[in-house]
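User: Round two. Same drill as before: sequence, then structure, for each protein.

Assistant: Same drill it is. First protein:
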Amino acid sequence: MTIKAILTDIEGTTSAVSFVFEVLFPYAERHLALFVQQQGGRPDVQAQLEAVRVESNEPQANLQRVIEILQGWIAQDRKATPLKALQGMIWEQGYRDGELKGHVYPDAVAALKQWHQAGYQLFVYSSGSIQAQKLIFGCSQAGDLSPLFSGYFDTTSGPKREASSYERITQAIGCAPQQILFLSDIVEELDAARLAGMATCGLVREGGTLAGHANVTTFTQIDPTTF
């Protein structure tokens, strides 16, 4: 069946893992407390702070305690949706202030542009919030890449290592699963996507093997017509 849509991960796939862990995460951690204190009155921020209280089972937590919970989640690298949302808000401010520029590999930029021009629908699925995804591509070192994409998915669609998440995404995209090619550098994610019926391709930029899937080292080696 012909591929119509391409769904890509970000970290280690379109973008360097080091950008996320050495630039974005430290930036959010440094600015978290001040951001929450200064912006805590915003309805969108309030909603995420309340979600932290619910998820931590501390409904009466004051603002300082919520900040401590969030800092603890950062230390644990916990994929908590309210933390991801708040990080996205902090990054948005950093991108807007010109302190951050999203990293996207040049080979990924070239391929994404080529695929978009060829008529493929392009989507993103990352554990980072949809807002954070839009910022990486919209404020990238290569310029605004957001016009290339038809949609974004994050942990609100489910965990990335569960087939049910990819089934939900398939329904949202509106193609048969066999018409969607999923790109990632994590074998458990590729396995889950394949269980859901998607075609898969693994990125091994630093070498190694993602067993059971086609492997490439750059986007330029990916030909959607061969899947």
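Second protein:
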Amino acid sequence: MASTLPLTDSCRDSWGWNPEDKSPDVFLKGPRNQTAFFHPNWSIGAAGVRGTRPLLQGHCYYWEIEVAPRIYGTSMMVGIGSPKARLHADSFINLIGENNESWGLSHKGTFWHNGDSIVFTQPFLENTLTTVGILFDGRKGTLTFFKDGELLGQASKDLSKPDDDLYPIICSTAAKTEMTLVRARRSFVSLFDRCRNVIATSITKKELVHMLPIPNALKNIILDSM
């Protein structure tokens, strides 16, 4: 991985994949449901899951998806979409980007939106662990991708005023494939947010948070960011 990542002036973001907003062919596991396992037996189409994190306009978000070495099939995708974007189809399609509700990068190196695609990067290597980074800039309305720490470039710049909130999405048509959210960061939203981050990064053990002379509600906020 590259030593310098986007959003250096930022804090850790705590979210996972939403168990209430997914295809029935996606199974979640791990802390905060950060790992998605697609089609555990066989596949008859495309299955996806939306993240619990809304991508707010005016703020920036960066997250990384680790795509397990089993990479094959019609389409394994990472991207973003509105609550209207489908998360299941009984056909082998590029689900993220099938219409104007989502934007997605396929493991074949194509970027999809509104049913159209462009060649964006080289296909992911089979039998090789791949880490995809996604940078959503809600200030400029842009979507940028990275692969294994290398900048791939800006894929879209028309995201400044969508009708609905946007969310991270992943999907796959391939049986027994897996993706894991391994890193998530966001820009600061307030002075309070910066202060919370300073406290959280200054304390080495979670047990010490309970000794702070602050209300329990603030302790829970700090603990959630550690």
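Residues 207 and 223 are 9 Å apart (CA to CA).

User: Perfect.
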